[in-house]
Design the sequence.
């Protein structure tokens, strides 16, 4: 079972790799859209990547309320718990 | 007929075509499709039949528009439309672009704006044909990609909405993203009208003073290979920027495809 800190590290690594975002910009409070410029099309690619990494079925609906990196970590953590 | 008579005639034809389009949509949706749904075969075969029917209806509509002298048109490269997994993209200067493309492409799927799923004249048609709503973006991308991977031919308009006269084109990245994820081949269509015709800022009865001519050219396939070796977020941005520049180059002066209003 992964802790939230481990999930955060994994999410960070994914964002850095997929979107080439500078690591220092990725904080728990950073908003995906406004701060990190990840739009709805990028979100599709992000979910696709998370599905492959976790091996879980992740539906876009589970992530509708995600706004920040912290929200994303919580959503991924919840999916892994399920 | 004199110039004034042909002008009035074209207003009449244009109005009649709107009635024909709406009436045709209702007849197909309320009478023809329910019968088609009763025919044997699974969902895939039913949808294929529906798409062929839509194609024939649009072919008839194009023949009516041009036969009555409302417009004239030319179409180049039609034989390259309709390959499995082919994504067809086009610029969007007029209301009838999709009618032409669907009329001359064997049984395509289309991404259409969400409003057509609510419009009483069109909603049964777009549902029965299995067309894809442009919103929300994430489900559009997933459905469009799945349609291409299953071997459908898909039509998309990267501008998302009809071109605005006098304004530069803008492409939404959705089409580029779908191309990278799902298309076996990406084929551009360049549409040019010699006069403003049924575009966003004109009411339908403001027909051009001369009979408008629509030129539809199927361009050479676009090589997707370079984009497949990159991460999708970067690849879709690069492809989108390339496509926009490519269209601007192919269409030349914006006024030739996007003529300003004739006030």
Sequence:
């Amino acid at each position: 079972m992964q802790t939230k800190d481990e999930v955060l590290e994994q999410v960070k690594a994914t964002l850095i790799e997929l979107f080439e975002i500078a690591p220092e910009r990725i904080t728990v409070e950073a908003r995906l859209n406004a701060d990190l410029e990840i739009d709805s099309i990028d979100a599709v690619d992000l979910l696709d990547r998370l599905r492959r990494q976790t091996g879980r079925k992740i539906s876009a609906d589970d992530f509708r309320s995600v706004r920040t990196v912290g929200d994303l970590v919580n959503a991924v953590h919840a999916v892994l718990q399920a | 007929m004199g110039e004034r008579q042909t002008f009035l005639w074209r207003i009449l034809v244009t109005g009649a075509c709107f009635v024909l389009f709406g009436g045709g949509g209702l007849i197909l949706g309320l009478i023809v499709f329910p019968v088609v749904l009763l025919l044997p075969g699974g969902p895939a075969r039913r949808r294929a039949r529906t798409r062929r029917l839509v194609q024939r209806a649009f072919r008839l509509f194009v023949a009516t528009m041009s036969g009555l002298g409302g417009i004239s048109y030319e179409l180049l490269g039609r034989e390259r439309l309709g390959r499995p997994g082919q994504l067809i993209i086009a610029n969007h200067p007029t209301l009838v672009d999709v009618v032409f493309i669907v009329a001359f492409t064997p049984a395509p799927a289309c991404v259409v704006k969400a409003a057509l799923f609510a419009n009483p004249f069109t909603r049964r048609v777009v549902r029965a044909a299995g067309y894809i709503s442009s919103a929300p973006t994430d489900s559009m991308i997933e459905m469009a990609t799945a349609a291409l991977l299953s071997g459908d031919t898909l039509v998309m308009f990267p501008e998302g909405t009809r071109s605005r006269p006098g304004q530069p084109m803008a492409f939404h990245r959705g089409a580029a993203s779908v191309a990278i994820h799902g298309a076996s081949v990406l084929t551009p269509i360049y549409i040019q009208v010699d006069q403003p015709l049924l575009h966003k800022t004109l009411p339908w009865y403001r027909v051009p003073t001369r009979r408008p001519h629509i030129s539809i050219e199927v361009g050479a396939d676009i090589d997707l290979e370079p984009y497949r070796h990159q991460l999708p977020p970067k690849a879709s941005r690069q492809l989108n920027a390339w496509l926009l520049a490519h269209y601007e180059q192919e269409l030349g002066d914006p006024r030739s495809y996007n003529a300003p209003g004739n006030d």
